[in-house]
Write a structure and sequence with these properties.
- The protein is mainly beta and 361 residues long.
- Among the domains are: 95 residues; 144 residues, 7 Propeller (Methylamine Dehydrogenase, Chain H), CATH 2.130.10.
- It is 1% helix and 43% strand.
- The protein is built from one helix and 33 strands.
- Strands 1-2-3-4 form a four-stranded antiparallel beta sheet, with no helix packed on it. A four-stranded antiparallel beta sheet has the order 5-6-7-8, with no helix packed on it. A four-stranded antiparallel beta sheet has the order 9-10-11-12, with no helix packed on it.
- The protein starts with 19 loop residues before the first strand and ends in a 5-residue tail after the last strand.
Length: 361
């Protein structure tokens, strides 16, 4: 139709009196149609030819049509496989069939993935091979259109979306949501059609992940964060601890600090790239650990040689070994933050290693 009027009169010939469930354009430009009845059709741009099976137990209803590498046209129903030979479809002996016309996914090499009652298969013409088995509960829960990428199978059904990897790992998305179809666009976004609208799963590098107590964090109140040279995330928490998250494995290493009162909240974390350390600060203390923790679990704490209490506002590291410490009374310079990690509030040298006046972050 165009502007509410009939545009191409030839399309009048595309009349099946049936629901089109699949269609396919072959290498010769012909369009093949599968329907919900015992009818297959081919349109060459001028006329439509229809085919129906005379076999009671092996009919064309709900067929998926595919062309193999040799240019042969195949039609696969849920009960039979047919090969187009000499202007007609011929029944081919097979014992492995797809669950529905929805559970096929074509490959670039003209083979095709499909779901059987065993699991995911790959078919090339008359030859089918099982790729991996799938839990019967997933297969029996009305699967929708499938998608297969380099990671594995994306299978939607009445219970949600399941990503079944070639590595054997299964992840569920959109739990308790009826998912009917899944596709991937050119920007690697995954799109899902559901009974509750359309959902988009961004490419992995653009996703936001929420980590909380369910991710084994002892406390969801994260006060500071930094990233080390290994790609791990260091998080300062409000319960005198530091957690190190490995994004590759989602594993978490926990650093517990003994003085709970002094280091109740880890408010600042800074990576010392020169010395491969990670410095941390609370309101009343400062320390560091090796960046390769837990290989080296030693924790070093800044010492005020007179055991005086000091309040930390902020700190920074330079490219040598100096550390600038902002206190409530001023800024203290520590000349060697590794070999001599201490200072004396009674031996300040003003404008040299101490700058008076209240410091702020």
């Amino acid at each position: 139709l165009k502007e509410g009027k009939e545009n191409n009169k030839q399309l009048k010939g595309l009349n099946f009196n049936a629901v089109i469930v699949s269609f396919f354009e072959d290498s010769k430009g012909r369009i093949w149609f599968g329907t919900n009845k015992n009818i297959l059709g081919v349109w060459d741009g001028k006329s439509l030819i229809k085919y129906s099976s005379t076999l009671t137990e092996s009919q064309y209803a709900n067929a998926y049509i595919q062309e193999d590498t040799k240019g042969n046209i195949w039609a696969y129903s849920t009960k039979a496989a047919f090969l187009f030979i000499k202007n007609n479809f011929v029944l081919v002996h097979d014992n492995k069939f797809s669950l529905s016309y929805k559970t096929f996914y074509p490959r670039a090499d003209k083979s095709v993935y499909f779901l059987s009652n065993e699991g995911l298969n790959i078919r090339n013409g008359a030859v089918s091979n099982l790729v991996f088995t799938i839990d019967k509960e997933l297969l029996n829960n009305r699967p929708g259109y499938i998608y297969v990428d380099e990671k594995g199978l994306w299978l939607g059904n009445n219970s949600g979306m399941y990503v079944i990897g070639f590595d054997g790992k299964t992840t569920q998305l959109l739990k308790n949501t009826d998912v009917s179809q899944v596709i991937k666009d050119r920007n690697s976004n995954i799109w899902f059609t559901t009974n509750n609208g359309i959902y988009r799963l961004p490419d992995e590098k653009e996703r936001v992940f929420v980590l909380g107590k369910e991710s084994n964090l002892g406390n969801q109140a994260i006060k500071s964060i930094t990233k080390d040279s290994f790609g791990r995330l260091w998080m300062g928490l409000a319960n005198n601890s530091i957690h190190i998250l490995n994004p590759k494995t989602n594993g978490i290493e926990k650093i517990g600090i003994d003085d709970q009162k002094k280091y109740n909240t880890i408010k600042q974390l800074v990576v010392d790239e020169k010395n491969n350390k990670v410095f941390f600060a609370s309101d009343y203390g400062l320390g560091y650990v090796d960046e390769n923790y837990p290989k080296n679990k030693n924790i070093n704490y800044l010492k005020e040689v007179n055991n005086s209490v000091f309040v930390v506002k902020n700190f920074s590291l330079d490219t040598t070994n100096k550390l600038a410490l902002a206190l409530s009374s001023g800024v203290v310079m520590i000349n060697d933050r590794i070999k001599k990690f201490e200072f004396s509030s009674l031996r300040y040298r003003e404008n040299k290693d101490y700058f008076k006046e209240r410091a702020y972050r």
